[in-house]
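Page 47, continued from p. 46.
Same chain as before, 492 aa.
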Amino acid sequence: MVSIFGLSSSSSTFLLPSTTTFRHFLNSIQKSPSLNYKKPLTVTSLKSPECDPSIPSEVQTFWNWLREDGVVSSKTLAKPGIVPEGLGLIAVRDIARNEVVLEVPKRLWINPDAVSASEIGNLCSGLKPWIQVALFLVREKFREDSPWRIYLDILPEYTNSTIFWSEEELSELQGTQLLSTTEGVKEYVQSEFQKLEAEIILPNEQLFPSPITLDDFFWAFGILRSRAFSRLRGQNLVLIPMADLINHSSKITTEEHAWEVKGAAGLFSWDTLFSLRSPIPVKAGEQVLIQYDINKSNAELALDYGFVDSLESRNAYTLTLEISESDPFFGDKLDIAESNGLGETAYFDIFLDAPLPQAMLPYLRLVALGGTDAFLLETIFSNSIWGHLELPVSRMNEELICRVIRDACKSALSGYHTTIEEDEKLKEAKLDPRLEIAVRVREGEKKVLQYIDGIFKERELELDELEYYQERRLKDLGLCGEQGEIIFWEPK
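Result:
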């Protein structure tokens, strides 16, 4: 799933992948992001769910269920409200910063503990946490007597996440890293389902009376990726009914909104509670909003939640660099990379107008190191080489990394079927939500690629002005002047 751009005098390989978030997805699959799937929304209905006819009956039933269970009451600070793109939590009175908006007892959480306590708990004990919960969700969805029925009835059948897009819709992502990421995620989920079906579902048909399809499993996967919390103590994956109605705002710059506390869980009970607090003051009638994840790129937001942010700083591209096994210095380079927290392959997320990742240039110089510069790989330099790589090594080395990165950027840019100007023109019209996601993601990626190319183009122009290792070494020995001239000492 990567495009290989090749390269160099050292026989190492530079990889510029057509996927930006599959690695992040694999790293975070057991620690899903915080919630929901909708954009920041404005309120169109502020009445209480009990009396507002515009609130779907399923939501009114859900609210009554929570009220009868003692989870919500007339003192609860927020209620479900209809907003242009779905449901949101609406403040019923002014809410102060960090004030508790809602508390949900642990008995209503859906997490691996809930799976373990169910009829399929023993079957799921060896599965990945997210697969356990996904299978549990699908099974409960088909059970008419499920204790989670009222909650499951308000969950969406799909989101605008790219995993649910048609082939025609995906074609608008041509050339993007998001397209190959989406394809990779779908292949991964399908592979996991096939194993699950063969090893758990089919051999235990008595526990799964309703056929479970791949589409059902994708539904559960989409729910988890878009709605699960992960920032609780000891909780890597948890769905919180009611709390997951809260929407995202890019204007909120803190992710502090969820706590695990001990407290009253009803009229006569105590339990561990999920405490949702507002990160900013909210006026009565306004939506209570949170920041889903400050560090996610637009591609990641599109994959997880099915929306993109208007902030330019969300535009990103991932460069993947690799030390080729055919490199004659592979072992030495790998040792150096590993001793500095990297490996044979290194990923660098580059955001628009942000500085390059700190370790990127040293790693680039290491990958390209060869020829007369290879002396730096000798054992005598083992404790100091990374410090040398943080500065230009030689003109040949610096010129090589500039050329390879620029060629890779140009090659990646040629893979899109539209220009930035064409995307800008499309954005002037009201677009279908999925087309808008595609346009913004592909435009953003192209902007970042041009930004990267610009950095290394400017560096190429400065090659004659840079100070390289040999000059620095001569200066340290007092054999080179400030202007780079060699100083010769004549014996007396």
